[in-house]
Write a structure and sequence with these properties.
The complex is a heterodimer. Chain A is α+β, with helices and mostly antiparallel strands. Chain A is built from 5 helices and 4 strands, in the order ααααββαββ. Chain A starts with a helix and ends with a strand. In chain B, strands 8-7-6-9 form a 4-stranded mixed beta sheet, covered by helices on one side. A 4-stranded antiparallel beta sheet of chain B has the order 12-13-15-14, covered by helices on one side. The chains are: A alpha+beta, B alpha+beta. At the A-B interface, helix 1, helix 2, helix 3, strand 2 and helix 5 of A face helix 6, helix 7 and strand 12 of B. Strand 3 of chain A pairs antiparallel with strand 12 of chain B.
């Protein structure tokens, strides 16, 4: 190769070198872009796998901790979604806000041991004592029923009437 | 490189060396003072030539052979006009132009040795004393190509006599071509069964062409070398690119397997993650309760009578966002300051405040200290 190259005329040498350099630059450029993309994908996949492995490694302790977190709960007092809706309706009846109350199941998250049900309940145009009673009744059912979000607004035309929107969760033990 | 390999080199692949008849040159071995440095040598050569030749240096084709540390220097020169214009044109394409005997100087034997180099119309005797790479004796005689054997023997005997004190001379035919490949940095000649080699740094000094022309050729060689290196670098780049691409293809297969593994594990992991999150939520339900009424009671204590709450909403366990209105704007800032002073409040931030028709509407975001909202123990 060296003999071939040195025996060429100077113009041929320059042409050959330029062509080869161009091919090398273009190819290396493309390879570099592919390598960078590969590196990014590899890093992302490695991170995902590492995190997954961490979860899998901790499966036993997480399950144990989950079991511990529900150990003090009485399965008979836990609420499924329909039971939760029923319980909220009962409370509304008890405090006298049944007519202005609406409930909606938002989500249910399941594990092998338990599930957590989330419901949005809205009490409209109620007076403050009724709302406080509703809140107190919810409090009494803790930790089986818990309040996660609460908003309260006054009726613009009659400020003595209030509307509350609550996100309520219940625990259900699957046994 | 073995002799066999040298012989296998095609003429087009060889470096082109023009080997001139020895008898065209006058030769002198010039002793050097101890400690002479290599950079001084070209000047000493020109001085020696001026003393030895009736012609000016510019009118001579000359070369010299010297090795660092040598105690002598071999100078050879020929009157430029002894060579025709056609000769000079033929030299332009050559890698080296030198007398035939000079091609043997690269042997530089470590022990005393002598050579009788026989060319078509000359015989040259070279004697090395073993103490120096530069020969101690070099003599050449012209002899007609068709000279009778007796005359040839007489010339030979005369030259052998000149090599008195040296081992018996070995007769070798004068080299006629180089055995170096184009692109090799050195220059080699077959001398009998041995190889005479000149390092790149000596090639210009043994060459008899015009020194300015040689300098230009040296620049050309340097440029060619740069081009060759760029060529090699580019070729190496292509090889690297090919290898990386090949490696990447293998890597992609491996990566796909890993991604498949991650996708396979994802549902199981998701389940564990959900379990953990739900366990945390249950823990929160049991230990940390959202207490919006208590939050409102706390902030209501300092509420000026001019301020009305329009809407309150919790954000997480310890933050309450309050929208309110008042007809007394300064009360908003007073209220914020009063809330800041409450021991239960960690942070109070006044958000958007608008004033329309004498009614100021505002938003306050109050962050409570967790200990202020601690629930009673669960029953």
């Amino acid at each position: 190769m060296k003999t071939f190259f040195f025996s060429r005329h100077i113009r041929e040498k320059i042409l050959l070198t330029t062509l080869l350099a161009l091919v090398a630059i273009v190819w290396l450029g493309r390879v570099a872009r592919s390598a960078r993309a590969f590196w990014v994908d590899w890093r992302a996949t490695a991170t995902v796998l590492a995190m997954q492995q961490q979860w899998l490694d901790n499966r036993a302790s997480i399950e144990a901790s989950a079991a511990k977190s529900i150990a003090h709960l009485d399965p008979a007092r836990t609420f499924s979604s329909p039971r939760l809706l029923g319980e909220l309706s009962t409370i509304a009846d008890q405090v006298g806000v049944r007519n202005g109350t609406s409930s909606e199941i938002l989500e249910t998250q399941l594990t092998n041991q338990f599930s957590v049900n989330t419901v949005q309940v809205a009490v409209r145009n109620a007076d403050l004592p009724s709302l406080l009673s509703f809140y107190d009744e919810l409090e009494k059912r803790a930790p089986y029923i818990g309040l996660e979000q609460f908003s309260l607004s006054a009726n613009p035309t009659n400020p003595s009437l209030l509307s509350a929107v609550m996100r309520v969760s219940s625990v259900e033990i699957n046994r | 490189m073995s002799l066999l390999q040298n012989l296998k080199l095609s003429a087009s692949a060889r470096k082109k060396a023009v080997l001139l008849a020895d008898h065209a040159f006058f030769l002198r071995v010039v002793p050097l003072a101890a400690g002479t440095q290599p950079p001084e040598i070209p000047g000493l050569v020109e001085l020696a030539l001026e003393g030895l030749s009736p012609f000016s240096v510019a009118q001579l084709c000359y070369g010299y052979y010297y090795q660092p540390g040598a105690s002598r220097l071999l100078v050879y020169a020929a009157y430029r006009r002894r060579f025709t214009v056609e000769d000079a044109e033929a030299w332009a394409e050559a890698d080296a132009v030198l007398p035939a005997f000079a091609a043997c100087l690269g042997l530089a034997p470590a022990a005393p040795a002598a050579l009788l180099v026989t060319g078509p119309d000359f015989i040259t005797a070279i004697g090395w004393d073993g103490s120096d790479a530069v020969p101690a004796v070099v003599r050449t005689r012209v002899i007609a190509a068709d000279a009778p054997a007796g005359e040839r023997a007489a010339v030979r005997a005369e030259l052998v006599a000149q090599l008195n004190g040296f081992p018996p001379p070995v007769g070798v035919p004068a080299p006629t071509e180089s055995v170096s490949r184009i692109g090799d940095s050195d220059l080699k000649f077959n001398v009998g069964d041995r190889v005479s080699r000149f390092d790149r740094s000596y090639i210009d000094s043994i060459d008899v062409r015009d020194k300015a022309e040689l300098a230009a050729r040296k620049r050309d060689r340097a440029r060619n070398l740069y081009l060759w290196r760029a060529f090699l670098g580019s070729a190496a780049g292509i090889v690297v690119a090919a290898m990386v691409q090949f490696g990447l293809q293998g890597g992609q297969l491996w990566l796909k397997r890993q991604q498949g593994r991650a996708a396979e594990q994802a549902p199981a992991v998701q389940k564990i993650e959900t379990g953990q999150n739900l366990a945390n939520r249950i823990e929160e339900l049991s230990t940390r309760r959202l207490m919006p009424i208590r939050m409102m009671e706390i902030i209501n204590e300092k509420r000026p009578k001019t301020i009305q709450f329009l809407r309150t909403a919790t954000k997480g366990l310890y933050v309450l966002e309050v929208e309110g209105q008042t007809t007394a704007t300064p009360d908003v800032f007073n209220y914020q300051a009063a809330l800041k002073d409450l021991p239960a409040c960690e942070h109070v931030e006044l958000g958007q405040t608008t004033d329309r028709g004498g009614v100021t509407r505002f938003t306050l975001t109050v962050t409570f200290k967790p200990e202020a909202l601690r629930p009673a123990a669960p029953t």
